[in-house]
Amino acid sequence: MGHRNEAQAKAGLTDAQLTALSLGRKPGTNNRTGYKHREESKRKASESHKAWCAANSDKVKARSDKTRGKNHYKWKGGCSRLNAAIRCLTENRKWMNAVKARDGKCLVCGSTEKLESHHIVPLAVLVGVHGITNREQARECKELWDLENGMTVCARCHYKIHGRKYED
Q1: pLDDT tens, 68-99?
Q2: Which of 21, 35, 39, 93 has its CA at a distance of 20 to 30 angstroms from the CA of residue 5?
Q3: Percent of the chain whose predicted confidence (pLDDT) is above 70
Q4: At what angle do helices 57-66 and 39-55 cross, to 10 degrees?
Q5: Average pLDDT score over residue span 31-48
Q6: Is residue 129 part of a domain?
Q7: DSSP collapsed to 3 states, the chain
Q8: What are phi and psi of 4, to 5 degrees?
Q9: Could you tell me if residue 158 is inside a domain?
Q10: Calpha distance 130→6 (Å, rounded)
């Protein structure tokens, strides 16, 4: 047992610690554990952060460069799947939203529920054809984000296209 714990055991709990325990807080934790921020506080903090990022884009870029790829603390030699990494890109989200906005309904059955974007030429094929080996190359490849290679389908039809069983 450490010195602090030993002293605590001899001295007992203070009134503040007893109050915290009565509120359901665990000993030795932050005294704000369980505190819920108001929506207004969250909104103000978000706006402030966005403004700072817009005003300091060079610092944001430098900070992100320090924590990406080989510099990231969870780096394992580039073993993540490229396909999954490309699907996490902002460009992919924009492409999916644009395809769904253009079509507005499933082009197979006409449903407007649970719409998804489907690559006509599969993403893996495009990655191989264009020799894409990283996310930056994927961002720059215009063919990946071509709206003509996309169609809107509902989840049920998307599963059917890929030969998977759909369960509600």
Answers
A1: 877 887 776 655 578 888 888 999 999 999 99
A2: 35
A3: 89
A4: 90
A5: 86
A6: yes
A7: CCHHHHHHHHHCCCHHHHHHHHCCCCCCCCCCCCCCCCHHHHHHHHHHHHHHHHHCHHHHHHHHHHCCHHHCCCCCCCCCCHHHHHHCCHHHHHHHHHHHHHHCCCCCCCCCCCEEEEECCCHHHHHHHCCCCCHHHHHHCHHHHCHHHEEEEEHHHHHHHCCCCCCC
A8: -65, -45
A9: yes
A10: 65
pLDDT at 1 over 60: no
- The token duo for 91 is 């460009």
Host domain of residue 99: 82-168
Convert the pLDDT of each residue in 6-39 to its tens digit: 877 788 778 877 777 777 666 666 666 667 889 9
How many independent structural domains does the chain possess? 1
Q: Which residue type sits at 12?
A: G
Residue type, 162: H
What is the predicted pLDDT for the residue at 116? 94
Farthest CA pair distance, the chain: 74
